[in-house]
Specification:
The protein contains 23 helices and 20 strands. The chain is globular and about 75 Å long. The protein starts with 21 loop residues before the first strand and ends in a 35-residue tail after the last strand.
């Protein structure tokens, strides 16, 4: 398998766009736009306001930078993230000072948790007014310091080109992440000299990309001597553009592979060595393989709590090889027997050579017994679901059919909750850059603007947002942005009339006391029964049409394929499909929060019996 064409390697820079040795006199605002052009930014998602307004005037004249006017700054931030995840380039969003900037905090935190390269540009009050509690002043640098790789407050217009160049470099290299550039209004208005190329000086920022040869050799030795290894693959492999190297190593060794929620598509779901996704709602084979492994070969993953469950009971028999671009992640949650700091692509390339050298020396792992056990678990505990009551739609069936009919070349963006987990389970991901979701932050409202950003960056791709009715009501106003800017995404609303994942927890842990999770009822209705047709609040079909989209509804299983195909044939405007689904469906398998992965339940009240001495 070759690396997906739309996912360039982390750290690639669009140097071809940069003008050579340009010196001109202009305003700081003009310098900002010229700098964005020079670093190759082609799309900015934003909304103007007083402090950033000077930048919007020269932006109007740019022939290289497309500005997409969003309806809310949160939409701009998630759109920048979706653009970055789908294209592998740095996403850009822009907002004004005060509330405009603070509305970007959630998507910045989201990008930070998921290591997504974005640059957020905000206007600030004038230099002399900073610190005086001026109108629409907020210390956005201070607010975002814990959730950015770096941030800048610019008060000198001469600094703008250098800062923009550095911001894009920092965002895209090493472990990717968000960078904030806050520019005072008077710096945008003042006259300055624009110089390009710029000289950057980042003496404290030197990401290690080349792994240490000794550590690579030690890791290879562990891999060929292990009896029960697992390649534990995280999102860092996708961000490094290392999926081709991953497949080479996996097929060379024959070791099983698990891919985290952020790594779906890094290794084909259809590959016989793939065990699925680990974690709270991961597959039984993937979760159990980690628990019973004697070696975790960890690549670009961070041992987060959703994967490990109760940490002190996680993978109790396993030695750990941990490779990551960020040295702070190694040993943070689980001590590493062989730590490797480096870019995942270079790590994997070197490992392939080192493992082959071990093979040539007559050292080759024998995983036959391990695979016999794994294959039995795959056969006995496949991911599945209970059928819906007669005549009703199952949410899993809806998502599975979307994946089958739309295919593996599309880009899928999910919100957060049950529909997110069902999407990860029932859509087959075969390629990197095709799965976008809010993994670390779990941000409701992510799907629609992220899909918008992905479609803006990859207009040739089919882009579907799989959203819940709760998530959809947080950011659906960006459908107006899509309709007005020729961004024809498809949105599948999995409408069960409730905050589904919270309701599932209330069912399992709160004696079915559904406090404030029913979305379609008011204080005079207990919400047990869904509303009759014609009384839906809101009516998503009418809402979609009011925002310039095509609105469709599907309530019967026999109509499912026809409605999906109808949506696929509409490409001149966004499409919203309101799928009315069975409200009691739950996500299984499940490891309850705070418990050991050994307590995984295959279905409600059903714990797998592995029947071996490691159980």
């Amino acid at each position: 398998m070759t690396e997906h064409a739309a996912s360039p390697r982390r750290g690639d820079t669009p140097a071809a766009h940069a003008p050579q040795h340009v010196v001109e006199t202009m305003t700081g605002a003009q310098s900002l736009i010229r700098s964005l052009e020079a670093v190759g930014a082609d799309t900015v998602f934003g909304i103007p306001g007083g402090a950033i307004l000077p930048a919007y005037d020269p932006l109007m004249d740019s022939t290289k930078v497309r500005h997409i006017l969003v309806r809310h700054e949160q939409g701009a931030g998630h759109a920048a993230t979706g653009y970055a995840q789908a294209t592998g380039r740095v996403g850009v969003c822009m907002a004004t000072s005060g509330p405009g900037a603070t509305n970007l905090v959630t998507p910045i935190a989201d990008a930070y948790m998921d290591s997504v390269p974005i640059v957020a540009i905000t206007g600030q009050v004038t230099s002399k007014a900073i610190g005086t509690d001026a109108f629409q002043e907020a210390d956005i640098c201070g607010i975002t310091m814990p959730i950015t790789k770096h941030n800048y407050l610019v008060t000198d217009p001469a600094e703008i080109p250098r800062v923009i160049a550095e911001a894009f470099h920092i965002a895209a290299t090493g472990r990717p992440g968000p960078v904030l550039v806050d520019i005072a209004k008077d710096a945008l208005q003042a006259t300055t000299t624009f110089r390009w190329p710029v000289e950057t000086s980042l003496p404290g920022y030197r990401p290690v990309t080349k792994p240490h040869a000794k550590q690579i050799r030690e890791a290879a030795k562990l891999l060929v001597t292990a009896k029960r290894p697992v390649l534990y693959v995280g999102g860092g492999v996708v961000k490094a553009g290392a999926t081709a190297e991953l497949r080479i190593l996996a097929e060379l060794t024959g070791a099983p592979v698990v891919t985290t929620l952020m790594a779906l598509g890094a290794f084909p779901d259809s590959h016989p060595q793939h065990l699925g996704m680990p974690g709270m709602h991961g597959s039984v084979p993937a979760v159990t393989a980690l628990q019973k492994a004697d070696l975790l070969f960890t690549l670009g993953a961070r041992f987060d709590d959703r994967v490990t469950g109760k940490l002190d009971s996680f993978a109790p028999y396993a030695k750990v090889v941990h490779a990551d671009i960020d040295p702070a992640e190694i040993g943070k949650n689980r001590p590493a027997d062989v730590p490797i700091v480096g870019d995942a692509r270079e790590v994997l390339a070197d490992l392939v050579v080192a493992v082959q050298a071990e093979f040539d020396a007559g050292h080759k792992g024998d995983y036959a017994d391990w695979w016999e056990r794994l294959d039995e678990w795959k056969k006995t505990y496949p991911v599945g679901y209970e059928p819906a009551p007669a005549g009703e739609l199952s949410p899993q069936q809806v998502i599975e059919r979307i994946g089958r009919l739309v295919g593996p070349d599309a880009v899928y963006a999910a919100g957060v909750g049950q529909h997110q987990m069902w999407s990860s389970q029932f859509i087959r991901f075969e390629k990197p850059g095709t799965w976008l979701n809010s993994g670390g932050a779990g941000t409701m409202g992510y799907a629609v603007p992220a899909a918008m950003g992905a479609k803006a960056g990859r207009p040739e791709a089919a882009v579907w947002a799989i959203d819940g009715d709760g998530c959809f009501q947080m950011t659906n106003q960006e459908l107006v942005t899509c309709a007005l800017n020729d961004i024809p995404i498809k949105v599948a609303v999995i409408n069960n009339g409730s905050l589904g994942m919270v309701r599932q927890w209330q069912t399992l842990f709160y004696n079915q006391r559904y406090s404030n999770t029913v979305l379609h009822s008011g204080p005079d209705h207990d919400g047990i029964e869904p509303p009759a047709q014609g009384t839906r609040i809101p009516d998503f079909v009418l809402l979609a049409e009011a925002m310039g989209c095509v609105g469709l509804r599907c309530e019967r299983p026999e109509d499912l394929d026809a409605v999906i195909k109808q949506a696929m044939e509409i490409n001149d405007r966004p499409v919203v499909i309101d799928f009315i689904v069975h409200q009691d469906a739950m996500v299984w398998p499940m490891v309850a929060a705070g418990t050991s992965n050994d307590e995984i339940q295959f279905a409600r009240g059903v714990r797998p019996d592995f029947g071996d001495d490691l159980d």
